[in-house]
Design goal:
globular; single chain; Aminopeptidase; 23% helix; alpha+beta; 33% strand
Length: 150
Amino acid sequence: YTPSQIEGAIGTVFGVDTQLIRDGTYFVAESGGAIVGCGGWSRRKALFGSDRGKSEEDSLLDPSFEPARIRAFFVHPDFARRGIGQALLEASEQAALAAGFNRIDIVATLTGEPLYRKFGYSVVERYELQLVNQEKLPVVRLAKSLARPG
């Protein structure tokens, strides 16, 4: 992404949705007392966005026919490729499964797409988000079925 695209996405598309924290569905990874990764899942309709820029309303999803959402994944570049993203993703998927969801989806950045594809997510669609600074941000929506143990 260009610096202008990143600038336009910070605080709206990129940023923490505190509803995830209130719902208890947001996880962090630490190293030496510092947060080096974070991510979670949601039982709410918004696909992405911070408190200031959610993609849609935030009402609850129905797990009998709607997928849970993977949300707000970030790993510090110095800690990339160390299994942090995988651990956060697995924790999120297991928690969503325990909450009764059998499908999960995400709107990911292009740089995040390889992680999700590696762990069984399939591309649903590619599109561009209109940013507040009039830039466009290419993203990809991916989805996965969650397997129940046994």
